């Protein structure tokens, strides 16, 4: 295990070296010991405090090698070449014994050449939201960047109002975004684009170098990974909120958390980002927006691929997404993995949830009730007749599949979480943290690390939002 700085070294003319600007009275508030162990960080930093000290050590290895990456992106459909790490720094790449590479990236590290009008900082509220969401998604089996630690401080950072400044270290395969490739293509810096492709293939997809056309295979891989990710978001009711191409990872992981939300009440057109006036990133738009983003990325492949090849890669998106989504939804209802013809039942169920404004997660969990019957299903809805008719068809389909009930319920409980990160739960944890206690954050992280288990002692965390938490306006500023 050792630290690498390959992005900084191999693409040195595409980054800026920047020192970390320390925060006033920093404190290590949350540390993900399990993740540290998983990425073998323990060997390098035997204790969390060592990492913490190293961060603020001007001559330390992390500080000396920290860089801001340059990228651009399509924001709400419009091209913006002015983006880059405006407040985040890539500290190092951790290479594990199995040669897996993990970027360590510090968010809220201060100004960089790409900060534009920003202060380079992050606030406690948004770093907690990112920490909670990435760990919650991970436990649900949804690919995501991870949270390694959160540093709170006494620094005042100004947003709509004065807030507490904080930093977060996240970890993931790489921080290469669609917007990296777009930037060097759109600004006609084709040599740099070529270096970025070479670096990406060599470092992250070496197996593709043996393919007839590595560029084609890379695009295909990104298309498929993105489709798989979106299928999961849709199945678990996750709304990202800011699917700009600079927030899209080439690894198909959930990336850059802003005003995201897990659905409470099922509303397919739900918009979690209050600045998104046209609903571009509404829940039910995510599948088509991801394809739009892949199209934007594909332009950067045009120096290497014909239009026919690009079309061939992109057309795989829809089929893959539909297949994956159908399989995931099938599992939620207890159908066989290779079950077919179940999407009418799925869609009728979703229509019923939407019509009667039922809670997405609780409704699916109801289907895993050991003693489910027609009465219970009818009681859950307002439109009893429709619910009963749906249940009758559902039972008929289950009978057709003939999976033993016990076996089926086990699989269903592994596909239908009892606990999700509802916005009001995150807000409760933030309120406590702003008063100085991270106990609620830790408790919530514990509950969400086993989202499929009953954990009866934590029943209150499975509840639908109280009145104040139902129409929360999550600030876009972070
Ligand atoms: P985001 O909305 O977080 O995806 O950020 C979009 C762009 O704005 C990226 O280039 C960020 O680095 C930059 N940015 C966001 N917040 C700040 C900030 N407080 N200071 C400097 N740059 C920022
Ligand atoms: Mg971003």
Low-confidence stretches: none
Strand fraction band? 5-15%
> How many extended strands?
13
Which cofactors or ions or other ligands sit in this model?
A: adenosine monophosphate, magnesium ion
Distance between the termini: 34 Å
What spatial form do the alpha-carbon principal axes imply? Answer: globular
> Main β-sheet: number of strands, strand sense, barrel status?
7 strands, antiparallel
Describe the structure.
The protein has helices at residues 6-10, 33-38, 41-44, 48-55, 61-65, 124-140, 178-186, 190-204, 214-236, 286-298, 307-314, 316-333, 343-355, 360-366, 374-380, 384-401, 405-413, 423-434, 439-448; strands spanning 2-4, 15-17, 27-31, 67-69, 73-75, 78-80, 88-95, 101-107, 122-123, 146-158, 162-172, 238-239, 261-262. The chain has 478 residues and is of the alpha+beta class. Helix 6 packs parallel to helix 19, helix 7 (178-186) runs antiparallel to helix 8 and helix 18 (423-434) packs antiparallel against helix 19 (439-448). The two termini are 34 Å apart. The longest helix is centred in the middle third of the chain and has 23 residues, at 214-236. Strands 1, 3, 7, 8, 9, 10 and 11 form a 7-stranded antiparallel beta sheet that branches. The protein has a two-stranded antiparallel sheet with strand order 2-4. A two-stranded antiparallel ribbon has the order 5-6. Magnesium ion is lined by residues 246-247, 256.
């Amino acid at each position: 295990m050792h630290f690498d700085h390959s992005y900084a070294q191999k693409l040195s003319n595409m980054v800026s070296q920047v020192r970390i600007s320390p925060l006033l009275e920093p404190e290590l508030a949350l540390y993900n010991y399990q993740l540290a162990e998983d990425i073998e960080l323990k060997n390098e930093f035997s204790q969390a405090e060592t990492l913490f000290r190293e961060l603020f050590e001007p001559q330390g290895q992390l500080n000396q090698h920290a860089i801001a990456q340059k990228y651009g992106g399509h924001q709400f459909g419009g091209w913006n070449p002015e983006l880059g790490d405006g407040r985040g720094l890539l500290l190092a790449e951790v290479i594990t014994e199995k040669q897996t590479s993990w970027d360590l990236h510090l968010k809220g590290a201060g100004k960089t050449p790409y900060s534009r009008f920003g202060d380079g900082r992050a606030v406690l509220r948004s770093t907690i939201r990112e920490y909670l969401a990435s760990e919650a998604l991970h436990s649900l089996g949804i690919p995501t960047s991870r949270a390694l630690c959160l540093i709170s401080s006494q620094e005042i950072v100004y947003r709509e109002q004065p807030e507490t400044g904080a930093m977060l270290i996240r970890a993931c395969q790489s921080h290469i975004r669609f917007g990296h490739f777009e930037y060097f293509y759109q600004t006609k810096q084709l040599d740099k684009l070529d270096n970025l492709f070479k670096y990406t293939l060599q470092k992250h997809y070496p197996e593709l170098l043996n393919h007839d056309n590595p560029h084609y295979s890379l695009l295909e891989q990104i298309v498929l990974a993105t489709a798989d990710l979106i299928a999961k978001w849709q199945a678990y009711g996750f709304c990202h909120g800011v699917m700009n191409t600079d927030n899209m990872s080439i690894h198909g992981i959930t990336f850059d958390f802003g005003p995201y939300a897990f659905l409470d009440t099922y509303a397919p057109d739900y918009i979690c980002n209050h600045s998104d006036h046209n609903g571009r990133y509404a829940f039910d738009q995510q599948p088509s927006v991801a394809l739009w983003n892949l199209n934007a990325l594909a332009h950067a492949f045009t120096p290497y691929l014909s239009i026919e090849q690009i079309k061939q890669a992109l057309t795989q998106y829809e089929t893959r997404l539909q297949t994956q989504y159908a399989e995931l939804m099938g599992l939620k209802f207890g159908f066989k993995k290779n079950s077919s013809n179940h999407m009418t039942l799925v869609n009728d169920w979703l229509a019923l949830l939407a019509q009667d404004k039922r809670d997405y997660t609780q409704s699916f969990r109801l289907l895993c009730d050991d003693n489910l019957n027609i009465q219970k299903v009818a009681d859950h809805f307002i439109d009893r007749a429709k619910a009963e008719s749906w249940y009758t068809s559902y039972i008929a389909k289950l009978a057709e599949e003939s999976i033993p009930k016990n076996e089926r319920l086990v699989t269903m409980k592994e596909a239908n979480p009892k606990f999700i990160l509802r916005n009001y739960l995150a807000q409760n944890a933030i309120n406590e943290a702003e008063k100085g206690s991270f106990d609620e954050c830790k408790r919530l992280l514990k509950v969400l690390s086993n989202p499929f288990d009953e954990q009866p002692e934590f029943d209150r965390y499975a509840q639908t939002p109280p009145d104040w938490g139902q129409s929360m306006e999550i600030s876009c500023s972070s």
